[in-house]
Amino acid sequence: MPAATPEPESAESAGYQDVEDSAATGAGRAWWDANAGEYLDEHGAFLGPADFVWCPEGLREADAGLLGDVTGARVLEIGAGAAQCSRWLASRGVEVVATDVAEGMLHAGLGYDEAAGVRTPLVVADARELPFPDASFDVAFTAYGAIPFVPDADRVHREVARVLRPGGRWVFSVTHPIRWAFPDDPSERGLTAVRPYFDRRPYVEIGGSGRVLYAEYHRTLGDHVAELVGAGFVLDRLVEPEWPEGHDAVWGGWSPLRGALLPGTAIFVTHRRPG
Ligand SMILES: C[S@@+](CC[C@H](N)C(=O)[O-])C[C@H]1O[C@@H](n2cnc3c(N)ncnc32)[C@H](O)[C@@H]1O
């Protein structure tokens, strides 16, 4: 049973600063629980109730095939949110389990299940402590889930490696690390680098009580690769989706203007080292 969600509190300050790992960890679940409705009001139509979209550039698994052939595979989604990607897989007969640390996000998925007429298995779980046996999945993935919101993403990779069979595939998308150097702004202002790419201090929002309400972590491309290799993965591809012609959606700092000049998403396609 997850712990009770703290009372909502508004942010008094925001910026880049180190905070205790334990404070950021608590913030992850509480923020997404409290903001599930707002997130889905803003992005739900773009994501679709049962569609598999990797990123604001609109790259779809149906076109990209980054998971490979999942016929007969057991698939795990972490940081699934309302489980749209898993629902898309389930609607194609794939055996999939969608997990997320925030019950509020998964709960929204129940309504989508009803609308889509699909039952998607949903499990509340921190991606760093998955309630599954060793080597119980063939494929694991997340679209922007979990990794940016934990101080210790190496733990996510190690846990995913544990539940994957040797040779199993692990694919995840995150904000392209280069974006950290730029303001998160879809306009011209977002085109000028203002921060060191190498500054790993997280972006945090802090409430009047001093509680960390939101934390988002930056890793350079090299950091991601080091964490993956350290957890026993082999990097097969690094996909940097280009902004498609005619795609005019704006999602936070992602826009046609910036997409024409800068990568916005990095997708790591990896597999667990056999043996
Ligand atoms: C940007 S949303 C992405 C959700 C979904 N994949 C999508 O594309 O809409 C990030 C998700 O990561 C989840 N998350 C944050 N920290 C997590 C953790 N430690 N373990 C599992 N999920 C986590 C949040 O609850 C949230 O649902």
Describe the structure.
This protein is of the alpha/beta class and 275 residues long. The chain has a domain at 28-50 and 65-176 and 219-252 and 265-272: Vaccinia Virus protein VP39 (Rossmann fold), CATH 3.40.50. It contains seven helices and ten strands. A seven-stranded mixed β-sheet has the order 4-3-2-5-6-10-9, with helices on both faces. A three-stranded antiparallel β-sheet has the order 1-7-8. A hairpin with a 4-residue loop joins strand 7 and strand 8. Helix 1 runs parallel beside helix 4 (103-116). Residues 28, 32, 47, 78-81, 100-102, 105, 126-128, 142-146, 149-150 line the site of S-adenosylmethionine. Residues 28, 32, 47, 78-81, 100-102, 105, 126-128, 142-146, 149-150 line the site of S-adenosylmethionine (SAM). This is Class I SAM-dependent methyltransferase. GO terms for molecular function: S-adenosylmethionine-dependent methyltransferase activity. One of its GO terms (biological process) is methylation.
Per CATH, the superfamily of the domain at 28-50 and 65-176 and 219-252 and 265-272 is Vaccinia Virus protein VP39
Cofactors and ligands? S-adenosylmethionine
**Overall pLDDT level:** 94
Low-confidence stretches: 1-5
Biggest sheet, strands in spatial order?
A: 4-3-2-5-6-10-9
The rough form would be described as globular
Q: Give the topology string: H per helix, E per strand.
A: EHHEHEHEEHEEEHEHE
Structural class determined from secondary elements: alpha/beta
CATH class term of the domain at 28-50 and 65-176 and 219-252 and 265-272: Alpha Beta
Q: Residue share in helices?
A: 25-40%
Q: CATH topology of the domain at 28-50 and 65-176 and 219-252 and 265-272, anyone?
A: Rossmann fold
The second-level CATH architecture of the domain at 28-50 and 65-176 and 219-252 and 265-272 is: 3-Layer(aba) Sandwich
Which radius of gyration do the C-alpha atoms yield?
18 Å
Task: Characterize the largest beta sheet: strand count, sense, and whether it forms a barrel.
Answer: 7 strands, mixed
Distance between the termini: 35 Å
Number of strands: 10
